[in-house]
Write a structure and sequence with these properties.
Length: 608
């Protein structure tokens, strides 16, 4: 059993409970009182009645699903008003507020709220109640919690998972599958012995995955929340009811989803079995209207057209003839260059994807606004075109993140954040020599070096061709080091050569001289360390030598909460300047971060 005499660790699971009745609170928002006491209710007309539906158990509501759709949890009523498919649970009044899709009423909906219950380790105090909820002392161990990023290339989402082991010698978990907890949200909380629930840190949040058990113990995996981003992006179909004259091969084809400037996109004829004028769809406008149409072609010939201002265009047989083509024989050869959205900033595209397909409004309940705003200010512009219905949301995000050198992950506070690589960014933490608990383990993947990079950009959708930029300016220096040359080609949605060149420089600055990955254990449980943090330290100098701190990027952080140790993977970024600054959260008397009005940490700047 783990040695956690002075620590508190809770494992929470959201048990789904049926909610069969809700009351109207205001336009679009409905509520129900989850209570173990009698409370009064005042309706929209100012009439007061008494609510006496009493629960025997106190609940802490952390998740909600409606008709099998997971609703997002927000932290205030004001955020709830801004967010479709969301809920807010007020612990002080025990009211559960729900904002349904398009403010529709909850008629005949299947609603389940996730009432948190959980387990903890045995402790000497014998106090297992938090927020009046009993956490049974059954935990045996938690696996090390690891968060990591890809060391050489960009955008890849590294899914993390944790394992929990618990006592099962009395058969407590034998009916686990009957509880229907697979896929339910779960979290691990950590703090000092005697801390109140609100003082505990959420150190991992995910969803219940696979499990195994014996007559002695039970083990379950908690999977990364981002791995649930498996919903397809292109979901709306060209159905024959809406488009009765569409040809059979286009029936139930997905409408393409597009962002930014698109070149050579197929224009899908919507009335091929009809007559002139013929209508063509360029992309789905369910969430974003087309910003502008640049040029329309029939088999490569420029043609005139009518913009219908609804994501479609019309072309008459006479216009086709004027372009030297004919309808209906050339109806399948219409393409267009157009600007799909009014924005093409890569961070804006990621935010819009997560809003439209995962319900994450850009508010402080879901996002680290400070970091994402900073990333947005330096992000490249790019484009995204999806015409297949099997493209997952996570893959769409990866594609955009690669173009803009971004890492998209969930931080230690459970908020989504986006960071764009900048080798000159400020230092986040300093590690002193006496904090190391182990000697370094050093690995170098020299085989992944590159001497040049070919960036394919400004794609033509129809022909699947790209413009190219070749960066071989590193070849001489790389050959001096590796005595050989190696090139790799990278496909992007970037629009111009300037951005393609910048992308190639980022790749080659790292891959032309592959740095060591240094693994070393450090004292303490570093809950404020995140992948991509910059660390001022010296992880490679022997004890007998003088310390020489440099700046390293944190590639992964693995926390052993039972031992109070943290294992770091570090990669050299730059020599330290004469003055390095570290930016840390301002703490209150309880050693907790002080928040601003947007619920973001207030940061202090000091010399490292």
């Amino acid at each position: 059993m783990a040695n956690i005499e002075n620590k508190t660790i809770l494992w929470e699971i959201d048990r789904p409970l049926d909610l069969s009745l809700t009351l109207s609170y205001e336009a679009g928002i409905w509520f129900w009182v989850i209570t173990n006491t009698i409370q009064s209710i005042t309706d929209d007309n100012g009439q007061t009645g008494y609510y006496s539906y009493i629960q025997e158990q106190v609940y802490s509501i952390k998740s909600l699903s409606v008709d099998n759709v997971s609703y997002s949890r927000v932290l205030s009523l004001s955020d709830l008003r801004l967010t479709d498919q969301a809920f807010y649970y007020d612990y002080s009044t025990t009211r559960l507020y729900i904002h349904f899709t398009d403010t529709e009423p909850p008629l005949s909906k299947e609603i389940f709220y996730g009432a948190a219950f959980g387990y903890t380790f045995q402790n000497f105090s014998g106090n297992y109640y938090y927020n009046d909820i009993y956490y049974e002392p059954r935990l045996l161990n938690t696996s090390n919690l690891k968060k990591s990023i890809d060391p050489l290339f960009w955008g890849l989402i590294a899914f993390q998972k944790s394992k929990i082991s618990a006592i099962n010698n009395d058969g407590h978990f034998d009916d686990w599958r009957d509880k229907n907890l697979y896929g339910q949200q779960s979290r691990i909380l950590f703090g000092n012995s005697g801390d109140n629930y609100d003082d505990l840190d959420i150190i991992y949040e995910g969803f219940i995955s696979d499990d195994s058990r014996t007559f002695e113990d039970f083990t379950v995996e908690i999977q990364d929340l981002r791995k649930k981003l498996t919903q397809p992006v292109a979901v709306n179909l060209l159905d024959s009811t809406t488009y009765p004259n569409i040809k059979d091969t286009n029936k139930n084809k997905v409408k393409p989803v597009a962002y930014g400037s698109i070149r050579g996109a197929e224009a899908i004829c919507l009335n091929e079995n009809g007559s002139s004028p013929y209508q063509f769809m360029l992309c789905d406008t369910d969430f974003n209207n087309i910003s502008s149409i640049t040029t329309v072609y029939i088999d490569g010939a420029n043609t005139s057209y009518t913009d219908n201002s609804d994501g479609t265009i019309s072309i008459t047989s006479a216009q086709a003839t004027a372009a030297g083509k004919s309808f209906p024989s050339d109806l399948s050869k219409v393409t267009a260059d157009f600007v799909a959205t009014s924005f093409d900033n890569g961070v804006d595209i990621i935010k819009d994807l997560l809003k439209n397909y995962n319900g994450l409004e850009y508010i402080s309940s879901f996002w680290n606004l400070t970091e994402v705003n900073a990333a947005q200010s330096v992000s490249r512009d790019t484009s995204l075109y999806i015409k297949n219905g099997n493209t997952k949301l996570s893959k769409a995000i990866e594609q955009v993140a690669f173009d803009i050198d971004a890492r998209v992950f969930v931080n230690n506070q459970g908020l989504y954040t986006i960071r764009i690589y900048d080798e000159n960014r400020e230092v986040d933490h300093t590690i002193e020599k006496d904090e190391w608990l182990s000697y370094p383990e050093i690995e170098n993947n020299a085989s992944e070096f590159l001497s040049s990079a070919i960036i394919e950009f400004n794609p033509d959708v129809k022909s699947n061709s790209y413009k190219t930029y070749v960066n071989d300016s590193f070849s001489d220096s790389v050959f001096d080091t590796y005595k050989q040359l190696k090139t790799e080609t990278f496909k992007t949605g970037l629009q111009n050569e300037t951005d393609a060149q910048a992308k190639s420089n980022v790749i080659l600055n790292i891959s032309s001289d592959v740095q060591d990955i240094i693994t070393r254990k450090v004292r303490g449980y570093k809950n404020n360390y995140e992948p991509t943090d910059f660390i001022l330290c010296d992880p490679i100098t022997r004890d007998s030598q003088a310390e020489n701190k440099s700046v390293y990027e944190l590639m992964s952080v693995q926390r052993d909460i039972s031992k109070g140790e943290t294992v770091l993977d570090l990669r050299f970024v730059r020599e330290s300047t004469e003055t390095e600054f570290i930016y840390t959260s301002l703490l209150d008397n309880n050693n907790s971060p002080i928040k601003d009005n947007n619920n973001q940490d207030i940061i202090t700047k000091e010399v490292a």
